[in-house]
Specification:
The chain has 207 residues and is an alpha+beta fold. The protein has one domain. It has one helix and ten strands, in the order E-E-E-H-E-E-E-E-E-E-E. The protein starts with a strand and ends with a strand.
Length: 207
């Protein structure tokens, strides 16, 4: 039996203790089957610049899409109000015709269309004389007492192409529709009033 003692190994089975020095042991193999951990390195300057560029591009795309959808929502809300006004105009026109008061119809062309609605939009700012886009906060409706037109002042204009006046708004008015009499014998008769529509004063492009 061997016992470890100090810097040697003692053989207790022999009659005389024998010491075996460490130098007589098999040489230690420094190679290990477990690989030594590699030292981790941080980002290089080039890699950091690439990451910053990618993040900037993605942020730009995201912001651009957000602005596009904001414009789309504003356009949809504006056209919904315009459609509601058209429905109110059609109903009022029919009521006047039913009552036999056709002479009252021309007055509709200069009336404030917001007065026909049971509930005015929250973003209706009121009536202004000779209004301009700075008269109200962008994103609001107003009625111009001078031109007798209902006006929407745009808030998001990134994809909007102004009309001839080059202003960031859309002007609407009531247009009375007239047609020639159907009967041939009435060709020289005055035009007949056949309807009323709520249309933009000038065509606009909102992509």
């Amino acid at each position: 039996m061997r016992k470890n003692s100090g810097f040697g190994i003692q053989d207790s089975g022999a009659s005389k203790p024998q010491w075996v020095g460490l130098s007589s042991l098999p040489p230690f193999d420094p190679r290990s089957p477990i690989p030594a951990p590699r030292s981790s390195k941080g980002f290089t300057l080039f890699e950091l610049v690439i990451v910053v560029i990618i993040i900037t591009i993605l942020a730009g795309i995201f912001i651009n899409r957000v602005m596009f959808y904001q414009e789309l929502a504003e356009k949809t809300a504006m056209e919904q109000v315009a459609s509601t006004v058209q429905s109110a105009l059609t109903l009022k026109y029919a009521q006047i015709q039913t009552r036999g008061q056709a002479s009252d119809i021309p007055a509709m062309a200069v009336d404030n269309p917001m007065n026909w609605l049971q509930r005015k939009p929250r973003n209706y700012a009121g009536e202004f004389y000779d209004a301009n886009p700075l008269s109200v906060t962008p994103g609001n409706w107003l009625f111009d007492l001078k031109s007798r037109e209902l006006v929407y002042v745009l808030q998001h204009t990134g994809h909007f192409k102004p009309a001839k006046d080059n202003r960031q708004w859309i002007r609407f008015h009531v247009v009375l529709q007239y047609e020639k009499p159907v009967l041939a014998s009435l060709k020289n008769a005055p035009l007949e009033l056949v309807g009323a529509v709520f249309d933009p004063v000038s065509s606009y492009v909102w992509e």
